[in-house]
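Quick question, first post here. What does this chain look like in 3D?
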Amino acid sequence: MNTPNKLTLARIILTPVFMVTMLVAFPYHYAVSLVIFVAASITDLIDGKLARKNHLVTDFGKFLDPLADKMLTTAAYIGFIYAYRDSFVCCLIVTLVTFVVLFREFAVSSIRLVSVSSGGGVIAANIWGKLKTVTQMVGLSAALTFKAAGEILPLTKGIQNVLDIIVMVLFCISGVLCIISGIIYLAGSYKYINPSK
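> Answer (accepted):
Ran it through. Tokens below.
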């Protein structure tokens, strides 16, 4: 197994650890979650660059890398549904965005499987998919940063509300990009779908 794929596997391994630190309340658990999330996100940046630079791009990596992204972001969104449970509006927004993310990822993953089974190969992520991933990572990192700041610094209710609004806007942007990238991906993959088979 090459180094980029090992980094991707490391991201997968970090995901359940990250989710536990988000959901289990202990001192500065959001700060710990932030460190783990940033570390996992950095592996996402490095593995792709290493694979392209050293000509180590493999079908296994093309399949595993987006899977690792899905696991990490989904774990974070689920964690934030719980984290925002005391705010109906925020919890509703995060829940809706999580649904959009999961719906899109199941649809794209299904098309990938159909493509492989029909001999079309593994379809790599397009620029919209990458942009979607970047906005998710930025939004989730910001949300974790604000939650961690609330553990360390005494934040007034007004400041907390402003931070929550920023996070919800970032989440909504990533949700919209999920829809756009999913539609583009499905449209580009239509040739692999044969209802008669």
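The two ends are 35 Å apart (CA to CA).
The chain is about 80% helix and 0% strand.
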